[in-house]
Amino acid sequence: MATQLKELLLRYWAVIRRPSVHYSLGFLSVGGFIAGVIFWGGFNTAMEATNTMAFCTSCHEMRDNVFQELQTTIHYNNRSGVTAKCSDCHVPHNWTDKIARKMQASKEVWGKVFGTVDTREKFEENRLRLAQHEWARLKSNNSLECRNCHNYDNMDFTRQSPRAQAMHSKYLENEEKTCIDCHKGIAHHLPDMKGEPLP
Length: 199
Description:
Mean pLDDT: 85
Largest sheet: none
Structural class: mainly alpha
């Protein structure tokens, strides 16, 4: 059986590496282009499917924990009816950063596979660690996902509270501070922050 499989693979490899006898270079080029377009379209379709709220909340760990919390915030229910979905805050919008984030997120699937957060109790036990990981990621990319929707240049300070005006005026130009430094817990409940520094 193993020798038959080896012979089959060697035969296919020989066909692939020798020049085409029956098809022109133009046909192969056009065929390769069409196959590339189909692959690219399928890849992007799959990528966008993983950015939907339905996909993100398909596992009970997310649906029963963080999604329930999101529904009570202004990012979900607000006067304008604009809802931020999970990927708006957790996946960068530009392509290269999005691909890097998707590769990084693929290892987060281990939490689902191995059941490290499959109950509310386990989720709460790991909540601070998970939050710190996400805060560090947002800090390292200068809160890129926040800035996809919130633009400093378009902020109307006169419509903000006096405290928000003061903080934004002080930190907008400060390269060491970014959105997540002050806005932890904006879309999800904060974990137990005992021993954690305040912003």
